[in-house]
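Hi W., the zinc ion complex you wanted:
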Amino acid sequence: MSKVDKMLFSGIISHAYIFMGPEEVTTEKALFFARKINCKNTDISPCGFCIPCRKILNGVNPDVFEVFPDGSSIKIDQVRNVVSSFAKRPVEAFYRVCIFHESQKMTRQAQNALLKTLEEPITKSIAILLTDNLQQLIPTVVSRCQVYDYGFGSESAKLSPEIRKKLAGILKKTSQGVLDVELGVMEIEKTGQKAESILEYFLSLYRDAVAVKTKSRAALINMEQEDEINGIAKAAKLSAIISALQLTLFQLKAAKGRGNINLIWHNLLLGLMEVMGNSHDSRCPI
Ligand SMILES: [Zn+2]
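Structure:
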């Protein structure tokens, strides 16, 4: 069981989750979760052989259903159908579970329809939103869900604790609007680490900040940087953190495409200062 799984299963069951990461990974996790909470054999759940487990494995459990985009989007009617079924008690399982695949494709109206259910949670009904793009979801939806990240890369594991601490401090300063961008770029470059490793680490810090904001606190990947993460979560709005996450992802793509690394750091830090909503004097020439 992965670190994220352990955190997920150690907590009290929530009524709404977001699983971030590649579709095939999050789908497997969501179905595993549905089996785990509905399994009759709690000691070894999911056992895989009790009736609820078998029905979920075969896709015939009447309380576990999946919503896929209809064409290019998940539409309001699809969400309404689910929402109305959520009001009923589970037919035979302990929990009714609805998995929204590619939830970033939900139309705005569909998200608003879902929001009402998330605001007035119906016990025994659980929504799991799978996504690889948090920014497409409206922040009020994200804030009602516990966010778990299954897209954590391995690159950032190569950074030493001292470098991690230093980098986390830089992000905290951007969220507080007190970073000198030139100095920040110099400090990042001085670490001598690969841009991909640093950017993946930044991504994981922002994902942790989202977790703090959505109260899935136990889900922190970078527990050792809890102070900095809390600092970011305290200083910035959820929508700003999501934008920062997206910006970092954009620069990670640029780095993988062998873009100019110095320019990437400048763009990143300037962009972060901007999305964090702080005015700053830009002495950077770019
Ligand atoms: Zn079972």
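DSSP finds twelve helices and five strands in the chain.

W.
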